[in-house]
Amino acid sequence: MAWARHAEIPLVIGFFVAPFEVVLAAHVVAGITTLLARRVTGRVLYNAGAFLIEVTAAFAVAGLVAGALGDPGGMPWPAALAGTLAAPLASTVLAMAAVRVLRRRMQIGTVVRLAARILVVGFVNASAGLTGYLVIANTPGAWPIVVAVSIGLVALYWAYSDLLREQRDMEALFDVSLMVARSDHQVAAQPAGKAGEIDTGIDLDEWNSIAERIKDQLAAGRVVLRLRLEVDEPMHVLVVGADLPDEQLRPDDPLLRLPGANVRHFRVTDGNASVRGALSARNAQEALVVPLRSGNQLLGLVEAHDRLSRWRGFGKYDVQLLGTMASHLATALDNRRLLATLRHDAYHDPLTGLLNRPGFRQIASEPLAERAGHPTADVADPSGTQAVVLRLDLDIYSTVSDALGYTWADRMVVAAGRRIRDVLGPGVPLARLEGASFAALLLDRVPDEAHGLAERLRDEASKPYLVDRLNVEANAMVGYACAAMPGDDGEPPDVDALLQRADVAVRATRGGEEVRGYAPSMGQIFLRRFQMVTQFRQALEEGQVSVHYQPKVSLPGKQVVGVEALVRWVHPEFGRINPDEFVPAVEAAGLVGALTSFVLDEALARVRRWLDEGIEISVAVNLSVRSLADEGFAAQVADALARYDVPARLLTFELTESAVMADPQRALPILGELHELGIELAVDDFGTGYSSLAYLRRLPVDQVKIDKSFVFGMGTDLGDLAVVRSIVELGHSLGLSVVAEGVEDDASRDQLEAMGCDVAQGYLISRPLAEDRLEAWLQARTARSLGHRDETVLTLLT
């Protein structure tokens, strides 16, 4: 406020005892002298003009009121009172105009409250001065009474001013809290930061406004706000008010090393030499200093230098206000760091520090949306630069985690992330999606450049990894998708669509071609798989799915000892679907239980019909890893055997080592229950796993099946021949029967027979046959005779 407090009293008396010129000069000189005493030098001209306008407006209003009362030559007291009230209102209007010129907003409610407060204070002061003057002028001996009344009014005013100050302090505290809350809201809305960095989101302009508000409320000549933006970094300094000298502060500055979180008041008159030196370095006479702490961590400091509005300097109210504000600011900084940490954790992978899937989606959405909103010829032209989403998958993660544990697998993932980052550089958004899968966003790249970078990534990620002093070989597959290719709706694809396309490209990679770019034809893979999964139950009900049987014969007797039940699906749209395609999809969708139940029922029904004909042939059914995780599976099998009245010895379950290794602690008890029922268990694809010997002795198995890849190579590869011979000898040494699958020629059969292999299965004997064709095959190619159990035995005709 331009006019000095209590200026109404001398002004109202001046109307009666002095002419306009004298009152004007006295008012201007007193006001400027007060400002200079308070060391307010930046607004002297503005305040001098305000003082002139105050007195001019006051005498103008007083003259108008006096004329209206019919006494233009004199000065009636209502005119003096009205003129006195006009002075602060005129300065207020001038201040509002200045705010408007500076293009700063001020709410109407604030203006009304300010004008009302000015009128109330001005009316009390003017009334007191006017009453005292009239009493003394009319009754000269009454001055002691006027003095007593004045003392009472001063005491009342002092009490009122304290209440007013508390109200202003509360408003200031509310304003600071509101600024902090707005800043926190902006922090919470900020996007994910760079990988490995926690962005506290401190807006220095916002905190500069907070420092301005503290300075105005404390009427300080300078406020210095020191903030530690990052841990173990020097504090950032914000200065509001008088310039802070450039002199470097000493490391042991007493104003910067405060214990606790209380406000300290330092003065040059305290007598402490180090404090005087610290204040002198700041060109200040006194300072209020309070640290901003979160527990034992120093987040910053607030310094207020040289109070201007009181001769006695900073008081207890200033100390209390600054302490309360500092508590709010410390809480705000602590909350800001917590918000930044939570935001970082929400958008980053905790293992590698890279972006996670939500973080990658948020980071990549903005540049992709910008390019979609500003299409260019380059985007439409596949040969031009464009955005590319690249995905890399390591195929060794699950194997390492199973063999050595997740700790070592995680270390390998961290190492892979570092290698990818080294190839891409620091500015490329990189994310770990899940497991050992990574994604990156490349901007302004031509397809050939993206393909070359993908090959470099694949080569680097495929180098051996040192895991627990072991060199682990790895293989990486890379797929990428370009944003120039429109989506199904003709619009540019978003992040999720590009990630899905890159995933399709990864799945389309094959041996010898581990880097693939997405092509529209690949998109049919997902659609086809989705249709298979959603239509599978309907296919079971409508008879599209059937069971074929591949015979198994004993060596050397050539008796048909069993069949393997193999599922087949003839789709009305896709035709005959390979089991290698639909079985994994059905298993991933959680429908493998229905498939296993269907095959088991069909197989047991077939065995029952053979038993009714006096023929004893066993049937083998393949087991899924999900079946071995079902604690009620053994009970379901026992119920099925009872329903079809089939002896348990005529049912064989074939399982792969990988199915058991997926969760051996859960699989082994279930296998034990099946074995106790009398069901035979066979290890399928034996020799292809990593822990065959370690787990073979623990599994309650009766058979091992030699993988067909070794049988195929026996005739041309001595290594495969040695593997087959070793498996036969190992199986027999453990008391197991050995089945060779993939027997396709007489030479292989003869070699297996010479090794002592027990059972052969393959195209040499028969392809998988539908039930009716199997009956025809049995009648045409087997001879019937009675066995030792007086049951019909089927022997192949030579």
TrEMBL record:
Coiled coil ranges: none
Residue ranges of the TM segments: 12-37, 44-69, 81-102, 114-136, 142-160
GO molecular function annotations of the record: cyclic-guanylate-specific phosphodiesterase activity
Ranges for domain EAL: 529-782
InterPro entries documented for this protein: Cyclic-di-GMP_PDE-like (IPR050706), EAL_dom (IPR001633), EAL_sf (IPR035919), GAF (IPR003018), GAF-like_dom_sf (IPR029016), GGDEF_dom (IPR000160), Nucleotide_cyclase (IPR029787), Rev_trsase/Diguanyl_cyclase (IPR043128)
Alphabetically ordered keywords of this record: Membrane, Transmembrane, Transmembrane helix
Domain of life: Bacteria
CDD domains in alphabetical order: EAL, GGDEF
SMART domains with a match to the protein in the record: EAL (SM00052), GAF (SM00065), GGDEF (SM00267)
Residue ranges of domain GGDEF in the record: 385-520
Protein name: Diguanylate cyclase/phosphodiesterase
